[in-house]
């Protein structure tokens, strides 16, 4: 199912087509080749001083035990649909720069950019990617032995979209909900805070 954004101005189709579906085909698995492509997209994301403060942990459904452990870290609401995804990726942001250990206040920002690169690359490959903030951070940290200097930012569920005729009625209603965004004039100011000119 596609649900392109209804935009105020033209944007590239890869941006318009990216959306956070919750309907995954549980019978299709993301190949190693496509997974590496997603990882490469993250690697080439911009970051402050090129520091690349992100670390990602990839959980492949083909390796059932760690994948299930990762799934169980999600909120129940997210588990209900993410269970059909082929891949779960945990995005972590280093709190400090690697070259001098000073606080990197852009680390989370940069990790978000790398995660978006994964999502856009997934869209370009015909996959679905959905980023989730609903998970138990401390359980995840302890279970996967993540060092304290990393902030756990999100899980990303990735897989193939489920054919629309196979989506149950309740899920289909959610999938068909209109995509909403604030108008440009509410999120962009000109020259100073609060100055709208669009």
UniProtKB/TrEMBL annotation:
Entry keyword set: Oxidoreductase
InterPro entries in the cross-refs: Nitroreductase (IPR029479), Nitroreductase-like (IPR000415)
Signal peptide start-end: none
Residue stretches making up the Nitroreductase domain: 16-62, 77-160
Family indicated by similarity: Belongs to the nitroreductase family.
Protein name stated in the entry: Nitroreductase family protein
Species name: Candidatus Methylopumilus universalis
């Amino acid at each position: 199912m596609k649900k392109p954004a209804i935009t105020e101005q033209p944007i590239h189709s890869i941006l318009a087509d990216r959306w956070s579906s919750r309907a995954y085909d549980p019978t299709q698995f993301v190949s190693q080749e496509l997974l590496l492509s997603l990882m490469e997209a993250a690697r080439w994301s911009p970051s402050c001083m090129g520091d690349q403060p992100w670390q990602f942990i990839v959980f492949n459904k083909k390796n059932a035990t760690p994948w299930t452990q990762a799934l169980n870290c999600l909120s129940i609401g997210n588990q209900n649909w993410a269970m059909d995804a082929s891949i779960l990726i945990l995005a972590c942001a280093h709190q400090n720069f690697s070259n001098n250990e000073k606080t990197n206040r852009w680390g989370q920002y940069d990790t978000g950019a790398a995660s978006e690169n994964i999502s856009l690359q997934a869209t370009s490959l015909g996959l679905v990617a959905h980023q989730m903030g609903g998970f138990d951070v401390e359980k995840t940290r302890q279970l996967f032995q993540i060092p304290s200097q990393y902030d756990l930012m999100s899980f990303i569920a990735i897989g193939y979209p489920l054919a629309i005729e196979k989506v149950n009625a309740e899920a289909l209603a959610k999938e068909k909900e209109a995509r909403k965004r604030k108008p440009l004039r509410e999120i962009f100011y000109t020259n100073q805070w609060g100055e709208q000119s669009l």
